[in-house]
Amino acid sequence: MAPASRHVFPLFFYLLCCIILSNSRTVSGQGQNKPVFACDVSSNPGLKNFSFCDSSLDFQSRVSDLVSRLTLQEKIGWLVDGAKGVSRLGIPDYQWWSEALHGVSYVGRGTKFSGLVPGATSFPQVLLTAATFNESLFETIGKVVSTEARAMYNVGLAGLTFWSPNINIFRDPRWGRGQETPGEDPLLSSKYGAAHVRGLQQRDDGDKERLKVAACCKHYTAYDLENWKGFQRYNFDAVVTRQDMDDTFQPPFESCVLEGNVASVMCSYNQVNGKPTCGDPDLLAGVIRGQWNLNGYIVTDCDSLNEMFYTQKYTKTPEETAALALSAGVDLNCGDFLSRFTQGAVTAGLVNETIIDRALSNNFATLMRLGFFDGDPSKQIYGNLGPKDVCTEANQELAREVARQGIVLLKNTQGSLPLSAPSIKTLAVIGPNTNANQPMLGNYEGSPCKYTSPLQGLAALVATVYQPGCADVKCATAQVDGAKKVASTADAVVMVMGSDQSIECERLDRVDITLPGQQQLLINSVAEVSKGPVILVLMTGGGMDVQFAKDNPNITSILWVGFPGEAGGAAIADVIFGLYNPGGRLPMTWYPQSYVNQVNMTNMNMRPDPTTGYPGRTYRFYKGETVFSFGDGISYSEFTHSLVKAPGLMSVPLQEDHVCHSSKCRSINAVEETCKNVEFDIHVRVKNTGEAEGSHTVFLFSTPPEVHNAPQKHLLDFKKLHLTPKGEELVRFSVDVCKHLSMMDENVNRKVALGQHVLHVGNLRHTLNVRIRRNINLQV
Ligand SMILES: *[C@@H]1O[C@H](CO)[C@@H](O)[C@H](O)[C@H]1NC(C)=O
Ligand SMILES: *[C@@H]1O[C@H](CO)[C@@H](O)[C@H](O)[C@H]1NC(C)=O
Ligand SMILES: *[C@@H]1O[C@H](CO)[C@@H](O)[C@H](O)[C@H]1NC(C)=O
Ligand SMILES: *[C@@H]1O[C@H](CO)[C@@H](O)[C@H](O)[C@H]1NC(C)=O
Ligand SMILES: *[C@@H]1O[C@H](CO)[C@@H](O)[C@H](O)[C@H]1NC(C)=O
Fold first, then answer.
1. Quick one: a GO cellular component term (predicted)?
2. Cα pseudo-dihedral 634, 637, 643, 645, rounded to 10
3. Pocket of ligand 5, beta carbon within 6 A
């Protein structure tokens, strides 16, 4: 996101960008404390004559009426994010670009904070939220964010269209934007996207056609490289196999559209297999509209079209670029490319008005579903929301709760954590992220309600002595002596280390995945002299190679806290002092540094290649050493699993004359007529055998037979439960053989492998034999 063309026309674009920015701030009504909306019949009764303003009519008739009244010039003004109002029809300017990745953000041009609303609740960065594996929480956060967003809209500080969430797969540990995503697993990303979008969009009155705010799933598709060793997202060609596309990169988008009913999808900067995504009719019109039937609009990333023309040189003229994007299925352009070149494209006969009308209709329909054409918002469902509904006590408490639920305990030597406050006379708190405020938010942040830094959170519970240890997270020179001095006398040491946006962010991938600069030296030096336990708190986006800390017996505990949001410091203190029992699980693999030395970030392949020694990616395919694995995370309690019910054999009926009855088949088509409702249940008893109450996530993985480059293991489902000490619960999973146990083969046919599937729950392994049988209920 963020205008990208600066490397094309550096000065020109900066200027242009500032002009657009200041324009949109004045025109979108900001500073006037009033929302932007059309069809203001109370101040202009003549507007009643327009049927597009008549909220009793269906959206389609209203949209056609509106489109039919516009000149081509006016239409073109509604193809870009800074849409130009049509005053003769009572339509104001509208800025489409707002952001709310983990709270209402100031990043988009359509939203800002002011004296009236100085901040909004800043939840943890998404990767930490994903670590909660709490599906209802994903939705609850969306609900709170959209309430605050509506409240800000009502006072002219925000739009109604938000370009979040980011549901790209976190494919490579170096990716600067991995922090924004729900991690590396397609199932978790799919569940997160759908649940969060429902939370953002669904209205409380149950009206499914109308929207609270419009969300946007981005960046479609196979986008996960910023700037690595000279490779730039603006012209990177992601070479993706059909199989990886179908079982890794596309599922979160499919689920976002089909299960989440998202109102928008954003196409990315990069190319996929030689075609820019925003100019690929197969990916846009074909898949998003054709197969998934999106009810909403497709928007380009900010200046994707500029990049397509100037950087990728994919098209011969800007007009051809505009025509290609519109014909491929783009409805709205973040940037001004379509407002500059669409007229020319029409004049040259490269695109016609029918195509423009289609785009426009998708855009207007979205705004209609938001009530934008229903007159005064204060008389509509969310009309009574205002500044009082932003940063409420409950919302701020939820931000703290999400951080607590997400924090992952990765190492805990017997007796280290939790610390008991009465026995700590002095706590040494060391590290460059100890006194961090802004770094806790991650990117796509807004102004928070307030901050609680780790130092503040800990100091609220015990007496602390503080040493930064490094000037900043880059830690060019560790200040070892001061740190050692406090560590050697304190009863315990908490070191808050890691990264911030200077290390991993949008437009910046990492090259190394070790802790920056001399952080390791600082940690080891402190560990060598510490009197009490040393608790290493890693505040990072992506994973770090901290094998040294895992191996060092003096480092007694390790916590990953992501970028934990505005209340992060309070949540960290809650966990360290046992006011909350941690239950977060890693949503991504933590690789050793050797992995990135071996693997080019540009290699998109998920699957290993034995001929080149390429090791593959993520827990689904990578078999090498890890520092920590997907799903890792311990608790102050212990949980055991026992299998109560699971079948040993499942058979799929096949027609009498099916070839697999007479010859040996290793798999069958999951779309076979008879491959339906072949279902079974797995029941697992989960028991909390420890002394602390806490939440526990039960993962159900499957290892299919080795055929069709299947993953070595993949997540079928997960369930989170809360158990009191000695408490137990029966967890039930329902598995559909043809759906859940099937996979894409090399030619993207969905197949069920025959033979032994191994199901994993905790330490349990259960073998399920899938075979075929003759269908005796033949239909004639
Ligand atoms: C609206 O319609 C009424 C009657 O149909 C007409 O008298 C009036 O002039 C119209 N107003 C405008 C602004 O077109
Ligand atoms: C506009 O262009 C589309 C795609 O080329 C074509 O199918 C359609 O018939 C055209 N419409 C008109 C009115 O020319
Ligand atoms: C661990 O601490 C002890 C002192 O408590 C020290 O002698 C030893 O060298 C330390 N080990 C490491 C690996 O830092
Ligand atoms: C990585 O990419 C570079 C340049 O594109 C190439 O020379 C090198 O062989 C690649 N390395 C691996 C391990 O694929
Ligand atoms: C999921 O989150 C909700 C909201 O915070 C919480 O009430 C619930 O206990 C969580 N579920 C589990 C199993 O921890």
1. apoplast
2. -100
3. 134, 136-137, 140, 401, 695, 720-722
CATH number, domain of 377, equals: 3.20.20.300
Cα 92 to chain centroid, rounded = 32
626 is a domain residue: no
Q: What does the pLDDT look like over 368-404, one tens digit per residue?
A: 999 999 999 999 999 999 999 999 999 999 999 999 9
Nearest ligand 3 atom to the CA of 530 is 5
- In the residue annotation, 301 being an active-site residue is answered as yes
Claim to verify: residue 166 and residue 110 sit in the same structural domain: yes
616 lies in some domain: no
Give the mean pLDDT of the chain: 95
What are φ and ψ of residue 654, in 5° steps? -130, 145
What is residue 396's predicted lDDT score, i.e. its pLDDT?
A: 98
Q: Domain of 654?
A: 637-775
Q: How many CB atoms lie within 10 A of CB 539?
A: 29
Judge if 365 and 409 occupy the same domain: no
Q: What is the CATH number of the domain that holds 483?
A: 3.40.50.1700
Q: Say how many Å lie between the CA of residue 138 and the centre of ligand 1.
A: 49
Q: Which of 301, 303, 545, 745 is catalytic?
A: 301
Question: Left if phi > 0, otherwise alpha if psi is -120 to 50, otherwise beta: which for 498?
Answer: left
Pair (383, 450) in one structural domain: no
Q: What is the pTM for the complete model shown?
A: 0.95
Q: Could you report the per-residue pLDDT of 220-269, keeping only the tens digit for each?
A: 999 999 999 999 999 999 999 999 999 999 999 999 999 999 999 999 99
Pocket test for ligand 5, best of 129, 136, 400 (most atoms within 8 A of CB): 136
The one-letter amino acid code at 289 reads R
Task: Provide the pLDDT for residue 18.
Answer: 31
CA distances from 766 to 201, 567, 646 (A): 40, 42, 8
